[in-house]
Amino acid sequence: MVHGRHGHDELEGNQFLGKELKYFSQAGFDLDRIHIKRNAPIASLYEDAILNEGAVISSSGALINFSGKKTGRSPKDKRIVYEETSKDDVWWGPVNIKMDEHTFEINRERAIDYLNTRENVYVFDGFAGWDPKYRIKVRVIASRAYHALFMHNMLIRPTPEELENFGEPDFIIYNAGQFPANRFTTGMTSTTSVEVNFKRMEMVILGTEYAGEMKKGIFSVMHYLQPVKFGQLSLHSSANQAKGDNGDVTLFFGLSGTGKTTLSADPNRLLIGDDEHVWSDTGVFNIEGGCYAKTINLSAEKEPEIFNAIKFGSILENVVYNPADRKPDYDDVSITENTRCAYPIEYIPNAKIPCIAERQPSNIIMLTCDAFGVLPPVSRLTPEQAQYHFVAGYTSKTPGTEDGIVEPSPTFSTCYGQPFIILHPGRYAKMLAERMEKNKVDCWLINTGWTGGKFGTGKRCPLKYTRAIVDAIHNGTLAKAEFENFPVFNLSIPKTVEGVPSEILDPAKVWPSKDAFSAEIQKLGGMFQKAFAKYEDAITADVKAAGPIL
């Protein structure tokens, strides 16, 4: 047994690293100076975060952390190293901005130099990808206990035996986010720099303490490795499976605010995961070991699963709390609207552990929130249309109340996850179409947005109707329904869906003015065409023709 504080520290000393020690000294870590804590217990990370980082424990036992100046990702500061092994595969441009190898070396050195000045350096070794055939070993090296606990929750946690035999990692994150990048280093646009090197399989973070950068860094790496090295399709999607013996699987695509997390959390189905998946030759698996849920306006009534997952071991990020009783105030957005909680996926009662389905998906649901109010609540897509809408990645943002803007703004984020893709969108779309074709997968486009008029005149399609549509997809009745053509976008829309008033199924019928509807649909069609033009260089003619015809 360990007695007293000193003995406790001795136990967690560097000898705990065992055969990993050699790696750290070779990488330039000064092991005489720093104290490396590898895969430390949750309670120990709590203690350090509270002692050194200003974290506090909430009334339900979660750890409330603050990420400092940056409360969201910094996509403009993300770089991909331009090197011979990956340069021909990467889709270079505004999403994947080039950085030369020398600059990467400077920043990597700067990160390690900074980590060497810390008393404690935290290491977490875990896996990305639940399928052992396609998983990668990830090592996170960070200066904050908060970052170690975050990745403990978001990666797949190794068993003691897996940790003992972990060996060389496939990918390493050096997170020195408390320390800025040097703005005079070639190619730096600010004091923040997030960069990924596929030749070295390393990521360096400087000048941002927002933990989501690490999560999305892993996602970017999987978006490169899965298609290029393994020939599998990585997707920004949620996934669930019917209960019972190897039940049917559904993939949900959709941008922020379209209902991806809400609709995949279905009490009648098992959750495989809420954000990042791979559609493989043998089924569907989650990339992550946890969930990173938005907590803005969270309540026990609206989202009980998420609300109840906020307990010991979970991290609340940038959430305001009442000092008198330590209760978080999820409605307070004074720090940021992007308040979050990171928790292990097993905190969700109907999660399927391991997070893997050994069968091909039966349905794909593409979610959009159309504030122009013209897209139908549900339509069935042909394989060409599925590719078109996947590449377009449409949703819209509703205007804020105070800034005098009354027009909704369209968002086109290719592959429903533009900031994270590495290859040309056409490559992911082609793989998607091939897999759909081979496995005879039905694809549906669901609009969770406005009906009976655009934002301001119409109203949001009630969640109970959207859930009824999803239920009809899952019980097979929707596929057997009678369909008719919806003009301009040429979509097949059902005449009836159980539990949904028939008149809302065709948007034209619920708009008070036919002329206003017609003008709005032409306008949205034009926006699609303009957005799609960027990707046309690598898209086949039949897919191009599957979009709106004006």
UniProtKB/TrEMBL annotation:
Keyword field contains ATP-binding: yes
Pathway: Carbohydrate biosynthesis; gluconeogenesis
One annotated GO biological process: gluconeogenesis
Catalysis performed (reactions): oxaloacetate + ATP = phosphoenolpyruvate + ADP + CO2
EC number: 4.1.1.49
Pfam families for this protein: PEPCK_ATP (PF01293)
Stored PROSITE patterns: PEPCK_ATP
Keywords assigned: ATP-binding, Decarboxylase, Gluconeogenesis, Lyase, Nucleotide-binding
SUPFAM superfamilies cross-referenced by the UniProt entry: PEP carboxykinase N-terminal domain, PEP carboxykinase-like
GO cellular component: a single term: cytosol
Gene Ontology molecular function: ATP binding; phosphoenolpyruvate carboxykinase (ATP) activity
Family: Belongs to the phosphoenolpyruvate carboxykinase (ATP) family.
Designated name of the protein: Phosphoenolpyruvate carboxykinase (ATP)
Species lineage: Eukaryota, Fungi, Dikarya, Basidiomycota, Agaricomycotina
